[in-house]
Amino acid sequence: MNIGIDIGSRTIKVAVIDNGMLVEGKIEPSGFDPKTQAAGMLYGYPDANVVATGYGRHLARKHFAHEVITEIKAHAIGVLHYHPDCRTVIDVGGQDAKVILLDAQGRVDRFLMNDKCAAGTGRFMEIMAASLGYSLDEFGHVAASSDRTAPVNSMCTVFAESEVISLRNNGVPPEDIARAIHLTVVDRLVSMLDRLGWKEPIAFSGGVARNGFIRSTLGERLKTGILSVDQPDIIGALGAALHSFEKQKD
Amino acid sequence: MSSPAFEVKADHELWESLGMNVERFEKMRQMLGQAFAGAFLKQPNRPSKMAYFDDLMSNLHSGRVREILEQKKKGAPVVGTFCVFVPEELVIAAGGVCVGLCAGSQGSVPDAEKTLPRNICPMVKSAYGFKASAICPYFQSVDFVYGETTCDAKKKTWELLDRMVPTHVMEIPQMKRARDKALWLDEVKEFKTKIDSVAGKATGLEEVRSAVSVMNAKRRALQRLTALRAAIPSPISGKDALLVEQLSFIDEPVRFAKNLNALCDELDERVKKGEGVVSKDEPRIMISGTPMALPNWKVHNVVEAAGAVIVNEESCIGTRYFKDLIDESGSGMDDILEKLTDRYMKIDCSCFTPNNERVDQVLKEYDSSGAEGIIHYCLQFCHTYNIEAIKIKEACEARNIPFIAIESDYSPEDVGQIQTRVEAFLEQIREKR
Prior knowledge:
The structure holds 2 protein chains of 2 kinds.
Chain A: E1 2-7, E2 11-18, E3 21-29, H1 34-41, E4 49-53, H2 57-63, E5 67-68, H3 71-82, E6 88-92, E7 97-102, E8 108-113, H4 122-131, H5 136-145, H6 157-169, H7 174-196, E9 202-205, H8 212-222, E10 226-227, H9 235-249
Helix pairs in contact in A: 3-9, 4-6, 5-7, 7-8
Chain B: H1 12-17, H2 22-41, H3 51-58, H4 63-73, E1 78-81, H5 88-93, E2 97-100, H6 109-113, H7 122-132, H8 137-141, E3 144-148, H9 152-161, E4 167-170, H10 178-199, H11 205-229, H12 238-247, H13 253-273, E5 284-289, H14 298-305, E6 309-315, H15 319-322, H16 333-345, H17 356-369, E7 373-379, H18 383-398, E8 403-408, H19 415-432
Parallel strand pairs in B: 1-2, 1-3, 3-4, 5-6, 5-7, 7-8
Helix pairs in contact in B: 7-9, 10-16, 11-13, 14-19
């Protein structure tokens, strides 16, 4: 058994693999005590080799993980498992957005990551959805149902929220605002990808990849199909588990 | 057995005599001592001759300040600086002291933001805050501050700083044509007049000549340290080397060179025996970009905590300060001043346009340092370095050199992201071997 655990800013993901095949994937909120939460999720696998990734990776290394790798490497490995010829990985998680260029051998060639703020990340989407009264799952569907957009200029979570409030007070339909917010996130990803010098095929991973509207709009903007993965949230954890498996094979 | 706790020594009597905010500063010196002990003293295999620099650190806000004030009492002009364009030779020739002012701490940024815009360089804000709140003993000790026109934030802040401490501004040209050099030479001569007037005497040829040789010797010692870091494994951590470079702006130059050469002798022995601070298999990283004023150890802390070693700083705190020497063959005063100006014109600061020699210099230092990747470090809002990083990135891509750019200020809030990016960069380097 090999386990990958991705201790993110919002959720903890665990992927369990047996002989290289995914046998279990689970997600829990990180909560206030990620160490105890993570340890609880590993209960029942006392003999597994554990590789940790995500913001809590060093905490995990200190207490139970055998090795750490970064989210960048973990997502690359996880996506390559499903799409071995993939050259660009987009990962939008709870607290940051990353774009990763892979070389022909599947090694990380270069990457970009947002530095300070939560602009365009899962957390940004959560706050915007909440300010319009939608669940995160509804949010993408509502946006897709609109064919108009509203002016939302700010990518700053705080300022965008106040823009949303003033648009609502001006009677702009919430689905138009939802669409506008999605488009700003796509704009930001396109600009990061252009800066990276992205190559096809391109795959989308991380929790925000569950949002079908972002994925389809991004594909339209880039004029290419976006490869998707099953359970995009756990791709980082899966990558860590696969890393553990490969290491043990050596 | 525990070693005695390190502290940056207090000297309340001195601080009070300098009109400092003693209560505030007492807290700052305690925090600085803790930060230093945490970052430096637990490093494995430290060279024993680092003891001199640790001691200088502990005397940073007491003994060294008293030394400078002793000289001042005897008539020595004391000049506060922020920039490698300051012709230190002329200050030394006039019997004076050049000292790098406090500018590297988040602690004084809120003080500056009471007045200055928030969206400007953290180094400028930090410096201004140190003076505005009277929490830097060096700022309180200087006769005047030597400012330059290397960026907009600095040159406009000097106008405000001048209200609190006399600030002499030297115009640094933005291009390197013959007429720019003529302007620069005039500025150098005017600066000499200024420093002579503060010293109350006309500095003669022999004094300038001897000051040039003092500074050349100091720069040679720093060059020697950089050359020794190229050994695989590196005989000294990047953090310790950075500390030495930072303290080179504080210490008396002759004593500094002597102690640095003693450290280098020890490192020489280590290199001969193949001893290093980390295993030869750990990634070797070069830093390029903006200065890291004491106590800005942010990037070095993250990189070396991840197991890598920093082997070079292509930066104003590093090679940009000491890579060039002054030709000592000058015959008369005019000739010497011209040769001095020639040396300062070689500084490849991003304030120049074009500045292609910097790209060449980065690649040259990459090759000579045995680095395996370059981290471009840019202080937030430093437009010239930030834009120039594009050319450096392109040059690295052309040669397949691993490269990342980090833009950051002094606050700790982005350390998590920087850590992830640096660790991913190191993974990338290891995999490419």
